[in-house]
Amino acid sequence: MDIFMNLTLSGLSTGMMIFLLASGLSLIFGLMGVLNFAHGSIFMWGAYSGVWIYFRTQSFTLAILTGMMMGMALGWLAERTIIRRVYGRPIDQILITTGLMLVLNEVLKAVFGPNIIAVPIPPLLAGSWELGRIIIVKYRVFTIFVGLVVAAAVHLILTRTRVGMIVRAGVQNQEMVQVLGINIRQVFSLVFMFGAGLAALGGVMMAPAIGAINPGMGLENQMLAFIVVVIGGMGSILGSALASVLVGLAGVYTAWFLPEAALAVNVLFMTVVLLIKPSGLFGMGGEQNR
Amino acid sequence: MILQLSHVQTFIDQFHILQDVTLEVPEGEVTVILGRNGAGKTTTLRTIMGLTPPSGGSVQFRGEQLNGLPPYAIARKGIGFVPEDQGIFSNLTVEENLSLAMRKKDGATRARLQFVLNIFPDLEYKLKQKGESLSGGQKQMLAIGRALVNDNRLLLIDEPSKGLAPIMVEKLAQAIREIKQHTTVVLVEQNFALASAVGERYVIIDDGHTVREGLMSELLQDRELLGRYLGIKSNLSNGKVV
Fold first, then answer.
1. Average pLDDT of B125-145?
2. Would the CB atoms of B75 and A284 count as touching at under 8 Å?
3. Which of A25-29, A252-256, B49-53 has the lowest mean pLDDT?
4. Which of B8, B66, B137, B202 could form a disulfide with B57 if both were Cys (CB 3.0 to 4.6 A apart)?
């Protein structure tokens, strides 16, 4: 019983970290329809810049803020210079963001070095609570908490604010939003920047959880994020949150019982969901996205 | 004149849709753009809004050049647009559709919202319902209402009667009569009964060219023009189109 509790907590924690990466992708890919293959690289830049600041200041709060700012800056720059030119052109998006991914990965190696960097858990969040034979790792609880806060915040922004309303309307009919006097491009720039910031937050949060950062972590996790967005349903933040938890739990349980099948189980899960419900678990999707 | 188009040309991809459209819209009146299917009526409205930008000629609104401006900037000048497909956001509620259109939240805007709910009372009962749940007529009301909640000086309405039941068309005509007390209207309409009932002026576009414009009362008497460009046989004895 205790092993199941430990695996479940671990799965929830892993799921929430995947969600932090996937939440940004859910906004950028799920809502705006932009296939951003550099999303994982921005996640990685968030991790590296956050860790860099953490080693110099010993402040994890500052690390989170720095990582998010780095992600938002990269997102803003990418949207302004590259993405803006390829809205509505998925093939061009794949090509140009793959190029951006390669550039960001190589520049990252040049700046921070190609080696694996060990990252400790911040002292305040280190250690665990023991309830009988159940071990609750504090940092895992922290990641679950941050994930839930982000899920609630993004959901509230999308459903209760004017910006959220514009985004939901823009997903359906960009042209109509414009003729109402709204500069939809400006709003989408903000969304892209915010989504990149969330990816970077995911990077900073994941660094202590996996104990090390390396220049391959972006690509590894980006695939999981795409799986989560597709399973959860395009454009649904709560769907992505639920899918992240399912993917996290499936990954942890499979890794325990059949380690070599961990990723295959998630891909299989995505395939089954797509076969049964092509729009994903909670997909709203763009009807027109003109 | 509140709106002037002078020798406007518009391409959609490689197709030269508007080849020479010239028209003038006087303030405070309803001007109806008439013509056969594919003549360029919808493209004319979309060109005014900057959705299919003109490649030649000029579009002026209250003396100000609109060429080159993005659609949102044109809308902010005070032009409302109701597209043929209504453009309702089906995943938003009626209230959200209206709220999204409001560029200000002041007393005047609230008064205009109340005006919209007065002329389209159906909307008041559906405020919390999603756009997708509305009937065709209600969607049209919402689309027009959405364009009226701002202080727009000009309203462009594309084929509002399309697909509506006769009773709804009557309601629509009444609504347009009320709207024109406050706002200049340019109407693209295939239903000539509606067009002639609400329009004071007409412009006929054929094959991307303006071929005639003038007073609606004159058009009603011109059997030859009605037949040649609009394919309408008219009973001129009582001035009504049959």
1. 92
2. no
3. A25-29
4. B8
| A261 or A156, which is more confident | A156
Sheet holding B3-12, edge to edge: B64-65, B56-61, B3-12, B15-25, B209-215, B201-206, B30-34, B184-188, B154-158, B79-82
Cα-based angle A173, A175, A181 (whole degrees, multiple of 5): 115
Task: Please report which helix (H) or strand (E) contains residue A285, including its range.
Answer: none
At position B154, the amino acid (one-letter code) is L
Q: Residue A131: in which H helix or E strand, if any?
A: strand A128-131
**Nearest residue to A84 (alpha-carbon basis) of A185, A184, A181:** A185
Q: Which of A85-99, A102-116, A200-214, A224-238 has the lowest mean pLDDT?
A: A224-238
In chain A, where the domains are located = 23-216
Distance CA A40, CA B231 (A): 61
- In this structure, the strands spanning B201-206 and B56-61 are unpaired
Nearest-CB residue to A168 (from B91, B99, B103): B91
Look up residue B30 and give its two tokens.
């309803």
Task: Give the domain range for residue B7.
Answer: 3-90+153-241
Number of domains present in the structure of chain B: 1
CATH of the domain at B60: 3.40.50.300
The structure tokens 């040049």 sit at A110
Query: What sign results for the dihedral spanned by CA atoms A263, A264, A270, A273?
Result: negative
**Inside any domain, residue B213:** yes
Contact (CB<8Å) B89/A182: no
| Mean local confidence (pLDDT), B7-19 | 93
Res A1: pLDDT:
65
Name which of B82, B91, B149, B150 to mutate to probe chain A: the one with the most chain A Cβ atoms within 10 A of its Cβ: B91
Task: Determine, for residues B75 and A168 on separate chains, whether the beta-carbon distance falls below 8 Å.
Answer: no
When pLDDT is cut at 50, 70 and 90, the band that residue B242 belongs to is very low
- Nearest CA of chain A to the CA of B223: how many Å? 38
For residue B241, CA distances in Å to B202, B217, B237 come to: 15, 12, 10
In which element (H, E) is residue A73 found? helix A60-81
